[in-house]
Structures
1.
Amino acid sequence: MGRRILIVEDETDICEILKEVLVEGGYDVDVVHSGEEGLEYLTNVPYDALIVDVRLSGSTSGIDIIKTYRAVQNRPKIIVMSATAKRFLGPTLEDHAVSDLVDKVLEKPGDLNPERFVNEINIVLGR
């Protein structure tokens, strides 16, 4: 069994593509489409990595999910993806006091090229 990854993304097309390339890369992947579902999964299943969009539909944002890991000792690696340019997203993460919890920021759509995406995940997870 490979390392476990949870993708929290409300764009279903993106989820399916990312899941497919990660499974081909040897990962076990779960996908949810809301922040509320993401929190439920993270409470019940240990993951090695969390890939989360900052802006999700519904009442729970990606930042809300990240904040739940402030005091967790064995937290998963946290990879944020967003259509917001990295140079603008950094200050947002700092304003919400979560930048120290984020292991990697990926920009949509450029960083989601399948080869680049899997390579970035491999680096974060030390593969």
2.
Amino acid sequence: MMNRGDLTKRLVAKLKKDEAVIGGIGNTNFDLYAAGHRPQNFYMLGSMGLACPIALGVALAQPERGVIALEGDGSILMNLGVLATIAQLKPRNLTIIIMDNGTYQITGNQPTATKDTADIVAIAKGAGLSNSTWARDEKHFEELLSRRFDDGGPVLIAAKIDDKPATGQTVRDPSLIRSRFMQGLGTGRGGALDA
């Protein structure tokens, strides 16, 4: 088992070219915020399953920018159809990272379908995302991140993680998050989101 906070720090350390990172709700974006708050990060608040659709939109709108969707197993299960849409549109610059702890952690640790039966990588491959892989360990995760744009996307990397809580908490102001993200992408006026 790997740790979401540790993997997120490893991801942020590899960001070199103003890549956009869209963090799904809850612990996924809390750890992203703690690991490296930056204007190119978007922190989803209150809506499960939307990190991948938002990342897809950014990837299509800015094809020269690397785009990463960070999502939990519970959230991706809420919107599996997006995987087929991503496979159909084939954005070369999109990487999806699924942190799978087998639970809806922030709502009380109810088990998700990945706890016993569902395999996110198999589902992604079945949807047409042939470049989908389970990270075996931290070193393999970093290797997969290093190759993510070289082979062309879309790419899906899934990691089995422990149930440790997030290490931070996102500022809960949607308009500030949106404004800063737009500024970080060079598409609008920014706002002050330094807290």
3.
Amino acid sequence: MRKQLICHASNIGAVKNPWNLETPRANVRCADFVLNLCNPN
């Protein structure tokens, strides 16, 4: 969830509302979060 929060705060958060942080997200690279608009599978 931390990577997802960082992704929203530093990249997509300005254009994406609401943020909807989810705990069951996969633990993937930070780049994968950005490429998938902070919601990787």
4.
Amino acid sequence: MPSHSETRLLRYSPDLMYAVVADVEKYPQFLPWCVGLRVLSREIVKSREVQRAEMLVGFGALRERYTSRVVLDPTARTVDVTQTEGPFRQLETHWRLAPEGEGCRVDFTIAFEFKSRLLGAVAGKAFEHVLLKMTDAFEARAKILSDQPT
């Protein structure tokens, strides 16, 4: 199963980076492959916000919709996402954001496998390209937010 992990040290605060990653409804504003996103439900479970979110992603002419369970833990500064319905046999992402010097250490992992071999063959390479750019998009969003006057 394809997976990707990376760690980055960024100049932004862990609170800002957590806010960027946790604000899933804003993803269509800065993730170029995220065509749409809506939160279907929210609940608090053991001091964590658990959302059910539906995302529409686009790779060229290909469009796919999937639903995920998103667990937001502001105290630990973690975001865990697991697909519950959609084109993947498995799709999980994990974000860990921690203070590091004057900035933030970002640990990001993703593992995925398409249900359909055909879809995997068609979309797999595009998806791999996208996930390699994932952290770049979140870092760019943090830069935009940190440059805005308060």
